[in-house]
Specification:
single chain, 426 residues, alpha/beta, Urease, subunit C, domain 1, TIM Barrel, 8-stranded mixed β-sheet, 6-stranded parallel β-sheet, 11 helices, 23% strand
């Protein structure tokens, strides 16, 4: 289908474009900007004046719960929620059931995502077999099957020699190692940030040192092996400073942060709000502000959803027994626009952190509206607001502490390979 999006404010941070112009799409790719290319005749024209036209969002961490936890969500349900939120590419961690440590699992996920047809689903292969932290996974085969990187999800690899060998193996095949820094001993049994709120509520604390000790070890191993490493979902000011110093020294490292960490703090636990039970935990206002500065300065190159949908029962037991994580696809765009409203980022910068930034880290052809690029496009009404409640969430998971918030930015059209996968009138 040949489509022209007319009169929108086209923002493509990857190429410094921010202009009111037309966007032309043909054969699933961007065919031109401004005047139509020679011989181009649109089969469908959409007036998107007053709206933002940007690349489809790229989410570095989203658990879709399939395979293994279909009672929580499925690839079909969550990729539909992604499309409704302008997200066209999602990256799944390997902690599915079965674990993504065999090529057959990779192929099964690919087939299910293609059958659903709402978004691209990329996968990280397991760093160690079964995520057990002892025997290295067959990373070469996983890369051949299409994995965009390897990691151990949130499961620690306690043995430093195993981690060193894993980094060497990954590096020899040009794979980025995706790390979730959390010391297993310092974080054991923890439920919240080790601070005044946890003490008042009687919850076991997770100190900042649980994150920084793990970051320190992994940075030492990166320096030793030369492996390319990405630190996911940072939560503390100290960790951001450590990554900044490492990059200044030339180490091949990058990092991201979950969107909720840029808005919430330990205070938002309230009186045991289980929807605010996340790992890493919500930390202090000082940490949140440092994370914001890291995003603004480009030390933190990407913002992800860290989407973890749960069934209601998972959050209806005492706080310490609830399953951590929040449903976050529905709020990613709105929380980024809130950062714009609060002066943390300008609009192109906010869009860059969820498009070109993560695409660059993954080394994929996405996150841009350049001529010839895949026509993955998000169109949203920047002045429209929506109240978050169970009726307005597209994800099957309703476990979010943002219920009752009013967020700006309503997606009206999402294109995947030039094909409409979501449309809405506002």
């Amino acid at each position: 289908m040949r489509i022209t999006l007319q009169g929108g404010r086209v923002i493509d941070p990857a190429h410094g474009l921010d202009a009111v112009t037309d966007l032309h799409i043909a054969d699933g790719r961007i065919a031109g900007l401004g005047a139509a290319p020679a011989g181009f005749i649109a089969e469908r024209s959409c007036d998107v004046s007053g709206r933002i036209v940007c690349p489809g969002l790229v989410d570095l961490c989203a658990r879709l719960r399939e395979p293994g936890a279909e009672h929580k969500a499925t690839i079909a349900s969550e990729t539909h929620a992604a499309a409704a939120s302008g997200i066209t590419t999602l990256v799944m961690p390997p902690d599915t059931d079965p674990v993504i440590d065999e090529t057959a699992v990779v192929e099964s996920i690919r087939r299910r995502a293609q059958a659903a047809g709402f978004a691209r689903v990329l996968v990280l292969g397991a760093l160690t077999r079964g995520l057990g932290g002892e025997v290295l996974a067959e990373m070469a085969a996983l890369k051949e099957a299409g994995c965009v990187g390897v990691g151990n999800a949130g499961v620690p690899v306690p043995n430093s020699m195993v981690m060193k060998r894993a980094m060497e193996y990954a590096s020899s095949h040009g794979l980025t190692v995706f790390l979730t820094p959390m010391d297993p001993w310092l974080s054991a049994g923890g439920q919240a940030h080790d601070g005044q709120v946890a003490a008042r509520l009687g919850l076991a604390g997770i100190p900042v040192a649980a994150e920084t000790a793990a970051v320190g070890r992994e940075l030492a191993l990166v320096e030793e092996t030369g492996a390319r490493a990405h630190f996911g979902r940072l939560s503390s000011a100290r960790a951001v400073a450590m990554i900044a110093r490492a990059r200044d020294r030339g180490l091949p490292v990058s990092c991201d942060v979950a969107a909720h960490q840029l808005h919430l703090t330990e205070v938002d636990l309230g009186r045991f709000d289980a929807d605010a039970h996340v790992l890493p935990p919500l930390r202090t206002a000082r940490d949140r502000d440092a994370l914001r500065r890291g995003v603004a300065a480009g030390v933190i190159e990407a913002v992800c959803s860290d989407h973890q949908p749960h069934e209601p029962d998972a959050k209806l037991v005492p706080f310490g027994d609830t399953e951590p994580g929040l449903s976050a696809l529905d709020t990613l765009l709105g929380l980024m626009l809130k950062l714009v409203d609060e002066g943390v980022l300008d609009l192109p910068g906010a869009i860059e952190r969820v498009t070109a930034g993560p695409a660059r880290l993954l080394g994929i052809e996405a996150g841009t509206l350049a001529v010839g690029a895949p026509a993955d496009v998000c169109v949203f009404a920047p002045g429209a607001h929506r109240l978050l409640d169970a009726r307005t969430l597209a994800s099957r998971g309703h476990n979010t502490p943002f219920l009752g918030w009013e967020l700006r930015g309503v997606v009206t059209l999402t294109l995947l390979d030039g094909r409409p996968v979501y449309q809405r009138e506002v």
